[in-house]
Specification:
Helices cover about 0% and strands about 40% of the residues. It is built from one helix and 33 strands. The chain has one helix spanning about 305-310; strands at about 5-15, 40-50, 55-60, 80, 85-90, 100-105, 120-125, 130-140, 145-155, 170, 175-180, 185-190, 200-210, 225, 235, 245-255, 260, 265-270, 275-280, 290, 295-300, 320-325, 330-335, 345-350, 355-360, 385, 395, 400-405, 410-415, 435, 440, 445, 450-455. Strands 11, 13, 14, 16, 17 and 18 form a six-stranded mixed sheet that branches. Strand 16 (about 245-255) and strand 17 form a beta hairpin. The protein starts with 6 loop residues before the first strand and ends with a strand.
Length: about 450
Amino acid sequence: DTEYPEFDYVWTQTSGTQAALSITDSARTSFTAPDSPGVLEFELAVSNQCGDDATGRVVVNVTPDEGEPPVAEAGDAQTVKIGDTVILNGAGSYDPDGQIIHYEWKQISGEPFQFEPERTVTEFKADTVGEFTFILTVTDEQGLKAVDACDIEIELVGDENNQPPDTPVIVAPENERRFDPGESVVLSAGPYSDPENDPHFNTVWLIWPFMTENECLRENDAYRHVVTGGDMTEYHAQGLVSGMKYAWKAGYTDTGSGKTSWSETGYFKVGPETALPVHIAPGNSPNDFPMMSFSVWPTDPSAEAVFGQAIGNYTRREYLIGTYDPMTGGYREYGDGLTIEPGRAYWVLAFDGLSFEIRGVPVTSDVDVELPLLYDSEFQDGWNMIACPSNRNYKFGDLKIKKTGDDCRVELASTPVSELADDNPYIDKRLWDWKNGAYQTDSGVLESGKGYWIFVNT
């Protein structure tokens, strides 16, 4: 797998005389063959940190000197169009010293197809887009076995001159709606329509934790849910975590172009609502600036909604509220599209002090929350103001860094800061804290409610 560099391995014996594997959680294992002839079958399950998984099958023939196992030939990999008939052909299989007496096909990945498994040649209709793997097991007169795999890719190939469907329109839920824990969350988009009246092929629903938004999400199976039948304009979201904010999109695909048109992004939160008290001491100089953070998903994240009622008319003579944006090389301030998000830090200066409440959903500390770190390659600006997303403290060295390239390849798997070399190309291992009008780097702990600077190198 060239996309994800870390794997978990599990070897399991599924049949035959029990063998003592030297290790069961490594890419390679070994055992001592039993004294008597027979067939031993094993399964290898492989998974990576993103939730992708695959399985493989290994057959070991323990034979007397004069016996040779058969050779399985499942055929070459195939790429076919939706609606085609797929033929699985094991006729190339053979036995060097006898004949094959049994063929068995088994599908090991993808949505299951209906076919006759115990035939030399079998077939099925390609009615689902995706990648699928089939295993052929052949058995000879001595009971010896062999396996081979065949990969099938089924594509929806449209007319390049055909137009994609009309852009879906989000219907529900309303933007930034809050759902109670356990409450049913139904996503809804408007009616499907297409310029050439092509049929609706499928709807792709993307649902992801709010802070992880990037262009690689569309191919991530953890966030991607494909509906191919029934009412394709609605989807019941599953597996949502209380204390999280989610973003979502709907994508309509037609049969004529094979292209997907995407809706705008919607947002919703799951969890009980609370009021977070905020107290800002009076200040009138840079030494008085506090770097602050807020461990809730605000009911309305705009700075005007969060601070507006408390401060009234915002003037820079009385207030300074903002956060740094390395992509612009400057501060984004109140009144300039500033939003309040957990995990981000903000400068907040109130000349006469300020006390108010932020209403929203408390951020969970039960699951990891990702925070995008920004870097401007033109000006090599990687300064980010960060904070604890929830109401718990974090050791800076325990925070995990992951680097994904523009091609969606993972360049650095999630790695604790403490395990990176001091001269690593990803992040400066210092944490900057503003204390008494000066920056200090002696703090190794991020305290909830406070803010910090870090610098990323890429």
